[in-house]
Design a protein that fits this description.
By secondary structure, this protein is α/β, with parallel strands linked by helices. The chain contains ten helices and 13 strands. It is elongated, with a radius of gyration of 24 Å.
């Protein structure tokens, strides 16, 4: 017995005896199904190797993931861009914080009844999203392609009221963002959010024009990993962010979405 105890003591001192396995840390992250949950799943194995169990809870709306994070039902969420987060905090009195951008979803102009921008006739109908953020991005993309001119100070708050020049009298039809892809057979062209384009089976390569990666919109609307204020230095979520910024995830995004989702790191 004495010899056994001495042997065990020597093993403990040498670090060769493990008394019990360390429990894995579970990180609960709320996410939109596409592409956010898919991107998180691409990081799962890396985190598992670090002793982190990634639990992904999918949400179909843009309110509950922030409500759940604020009430500490989630450790993080990944579904929104910084302007939306800032507005949510201001409107709801929440204190949620961005840890950094992961990807952005470029807007594209897609053909409806008209096959190319060069073929657009006077009075052609152009469908754009009707919510403030997305409408501004759509109008900026139309301007970037010479279809309209906006007032100089419109920027990311642009609406149809900011259109200063519309020489071909295009009819701008405002629709719910999810309705624009559905409306393509009835309009000449439509400006579509990246995530709704994916859901409609459209590829970035199908677009007649797409947001430049260095455009104001692309650099502003990166989708971020978000935590409750004060938890920015939590090691598990820092490890999560590092995995989302990895070459593995970059390759997954580029290979899977073919330009409809673009890494922002």
């Amino acid at each position: 017995m004495k010899k056994l105890l001495l042997t065990l003591a020597a093993m403990l001192a040498a670090g060769t005896l493990v008394c019990h396995a360390q429990a894995a840390t579970t990180v609960k992250v709320g996410a939109s199904p596409t592409p956010h949950a898919e991107i998180l799943n691409a990081a799962k194995d890396m985190l598992k190797a670090e002793g982190i169990n990634l639990e992904i809870i999918e949400y179909s709306d843009y309110v509950q993931p922030n409500v759940a994070l604020d009430s500490k039902d989630l450790d993080a969420n990944y579904f929104q861009h910084k302007p939306y987060l800032d507005d949510f905090n201001a409107q709801k009195g929440t204190k949620l914080s961005s840890m950094g951008g992961v990807h952005y979803e470029p807007f594209g102009i897609y053909a409806g009844k008209t096959a190319s921008l060069d073929e657009l006739a006077d009075g052609a109908t152009i469908a754009v999203p009707n919510d403030a953020t997305n409408e501004a991005r759509a109008l900026l993309l139309l301007e970037a392609n010479g279809l309209i001119t906006l007032s100089e100070d419109a920027g990311l708050t642009a609406t149809v009221l900011d259109i200063e020049e519309n020489p071909h009298n295009y009819k701008i039809t405002e629709l719910g963002a999810a309705q624009v892809p559905i409306s393509l057979p009835d309009v000449d062209i439509g400006v579509i959010n990246g995530n709704f384009a994916i859901q409609a089976g459209l590829k970035a390569s199908d677009a007649l024009a797409i947001e430049d990666k260095d455009s104001l919109a692309a650099t502003t609307y990166a989708n971020v990993l978000c935590v409750k204020e004060g938890n920015e230095q939590n090691q598990a979520t820092l490890d999560l962010l590092e995995s989302l910024h990895s070459d593995t995830v970059r390759t997954f995004i580029e290979d899977t979405y073919e330009g409809a989702v673009v890494p922002s790191f």
